[in-house]
Amino acid sequence: MSRALLLDTHALLFRAFFALPPMSTKAGEPTSALYGLAVMLLKLLRDERPRGLAFALDAAQPTFRHRQSQSYKAHRPPLPDGLRRQLDALPRLLEAVGAPTFVAPGFEADDVLATLARELASSKVDVRIVTADHDLFQVARDGVDVLFVGTRGRKSILYDRAALVARYGVEPGQLPSLTALVGDPSDNLPKVPGVGARTAQKLVQRFGDMRGLIEGLEQVTPAALRGTLAAASAQLLETESLARLRDDVPLSPGPRAAPIGAEAWARMRALFVEWEFHSLLTRIDQLARSEAPAAVEDQLRFDL
After folding, report:
1. Phi and psi dihedrals of 129, rounded to 5?
2. Does the structure show a pLDDT above 60 at 296?
3. Per-residue confidence at 153, pLDDT binned at 50, 70, 90?
4. 73 and 31 share one domain
5. Does residue 15 sit in the same domain as residue 75?
6. Residue 24: beta bridge partners?
7. What pTM does this model have?
8. CATH number, domain at 13?
């Protein structure tokens, strides 16, 4: 069964920016994040040999979560100027690659990825989501896994459904319920005071989700915990809702993923020369040579 790679593009660009030392062209244009993303992309293409690729981006506008909660991600500082300038240049890299790129106003890239994963998996296409965001763990299921790109110096970790159940003690789809109890500082989602990870795990295992927990509060002991959860019931439902990804995002028509065309290697090579990524040119040439014989066959066999 063929695999499609879905990239959480902005999250990976941000991770590269904060992981790498500053880089710039001779003209002074910052490039460290773009370089890091390019290195990661070439490595994925070499190691994974995907039959299809797609990029998901965050929209510039506020999402439905920001409308639902004024505090959602409100603590995040403005983007550094060097990162913002590289965000402006990112479309040039995506255009050179030529794979489908998706953005949906009102939704996050995570919602777009969840939707793409559902659509592709329903068509019997294996999916691997590449991200630096734990939120996407909830999407894992049969036919869908998540390659988590860690911080600098740490290897990427591949999570399938079984690995996530082993790590968290609940099904991937129940992770938003776990977040409702323990919070998520990265998204400014509050925790319930006095509820630790182990207690949260037991509650989700027993009641399934926050609606089930609230409806079954009389079964919770000790009484102090029951009172704490009762007082936080509205927060629990809101946080669970904010943490849960949407997989019904309206996306533009067309293929959900596509192979890298033969002409893409030349476009990427020219861009890397312009951006002075000289160390990547040999990798581009090697990939172009190794992919060329199968390019036409892949286009014919792999229609997403």
Report:
1. -90, 130
2. no
3. low
4. yes
5. yes
6. 30
7. 0.92
8. 3.40.50.1010
> What is the Cα–Cα distance from 196 to 228, expressed in whole angstroms?
13
Residue 2: pLDDT band with limits 50, 70, 90: low
Residue type, 178: L
The amino acid sitting at 64 is: F
Please state, in angstroms and rounded to a whole number, the distance separating the CA atoms of residues 68 and 180.
Answer: 15
pLDDT tens string 22-40: 999 999 999 999 999 999 9
Neighbouring-strand partners of residue 129: 6, 146
Domain that holds residue 176: 170-243
Amino acid at 29: E
Looking at the structure, tell me whether residues 206 and 254 fall in a common domain: no
**Count: domains in the chain:** 2
CB atoms < 10 A from the CB of 263, how many? 11
pLDDT in tens, 90-119: 999 999 999 999 999 999 999 999 999 999
